[in-house]
Amino acid sequence: MYPPPSLIILKLLLSTLLLVTPSQSLSQGNHEDDHESSSLFCESWRFSVETNNAGNWSTIPSRCYEFVNHYMTGDRYVSDLGVTGRNALDYAKTVDIAGDGMDAWVFDIDETLLSMLAYYKLHKFRSTTLKVEVKWGLRHKLTVLPASLSLYNEIRQLGFTVFLLTGRPEWLRNQTVTNLLYAGYNDWERLILRQSYDERKKAIDYKSENRKQLEDEGYRIHGSLGDQWSDLLGYATAQRSFKYPNLMYYAA
Ligand SMILES: [Mg+2]
């Protein structure tokens, strides 16, 4: 009538294997699935940011903090900047430089020539406010992006006249010049910063107006490099614009 004790023990063992082991595996699998799902989501989020499909976003999704950390501190960011720099240089070499000093190239500064990476690391890549970032920037020198310095020097050697067009306010001029020189940049033609009458302007309008001013002075703007679409679009745009990635913020 009753099964022998050895069979009961075997059944118990089997049920233990069936019930416990699979659930433990499932638990580990879920963790990996979560990671993969986040990674996939964050790749798509990055695509939406870079294409501007995301529009005027302000906060990195919390599940992507680690993704952004990995992107910014690993090889990928350096590689993306390097490829962009080579694309820009390949184009620059095709430009017929007239030799009259009017062939121009426009560079943005923040996250283009200089990097806040040290600050982002400190804050573990969580979004912060611009006010906090400026405060930190006042106390620390921003570091150079090597791909940018290399491109900058090549552009200068090819004979372009270089303009630096930044959304930084005029009162940061001295600090900005000091930081640029410290990072290795020199011999720019003009550093253009926001004046008091620019304060309420959108970045895209402010930058377009200043490029138009350069054109009105007779400069031919062949190339432009920036990390925001507002550095590059609008009017009086360069013949070719080159965009760096920026997963930390968006400026309209
Ligand atoms: Mg910038």
TrEMBL record:
GO molecular function, one term: acid phosphatase activity
Alphabetic keyword roster: Glycoprotein, Signal
Keyword Signal: yes
A Pfam family recorded for this sequence: Acid_phosphat_B
Keyword Zinc found: no
Signal peptide: 1-25
InterPro entries cross-referenced by the UniProt entry: Acid_phosphat_B-like (IPR005519), APS1/VSP (IPR014403), HAD-like_sf (IPR036412), HAD_sf (IPR023214)
Assigned protein family: Belongs to the APS1/VSP family.
Protein name: Acid phosphatase 1
Organism in which the protein naturally occurs: Spinacia oleracea
Gene: LOC110799480
